[in-house]
Please model this.
Amino acid sequence: MQELVNIFVKSIFMENMIFAYFLGMCSFLAVSKSVKTATGLGIAVIFVLVITLPVNYLIYKYVLLPGALSWLSPQFADLDLSFLSFIIFIAVVASITQLVEMVVEKFTPALYSSLGIFLPLIAVNCAILGGSLFMQERGYETLGQATTFAFGSGVGWFLAIVSLAAIREKLKYSNIPAPLRGLGITFIVVGLMGIAFMSFMGIKL
Model:
């Protein structure tokens, strides 16, 4: 249990997808103009991560790894399909994203309209694919570890985009110099938030 808690906390703060690895910056900057829209996209990202990463973990462990297909037949013991991992991960992410898009359009059309093109673009959100690639690189031993990492990474991305959206809503009432209005002041705020999150990197778990 302690190991799962460590993975969860690290993926939110010390290894935040936005502030540690700069993954998913395009939608992070574009959809963070209002808290409501940012919350909707953040929840969608959490959902996609929690579904796709465990699925990719199972596919990687029981199909793609060298010798993973030995459970089918001993003659597949030397088969190595790991070179297909990248394209398989992308296919799984795209499929789950399509499902999320249909669900959001069906039950919350207002949120679907406000998210616009950025909802289907979750399929190419590098934070989603990055989660699966980090899972592969770090070699998590159990499905629980992979799922915990997925949930923590999603929560970290959610906190980042909602926090930025809240700040940007407050900035509308601030007296900002004309050259810095819009993305200019947003880049400065994101940089300061990144520096703030760097303080968590000194924590040893």
User: Anything to note?
Assistant: The CA atoms of residues 18 and 150 lie 14 Å apart. The two ends are 13 Å apart (CA to CA). Residues 2-199 form one domain.
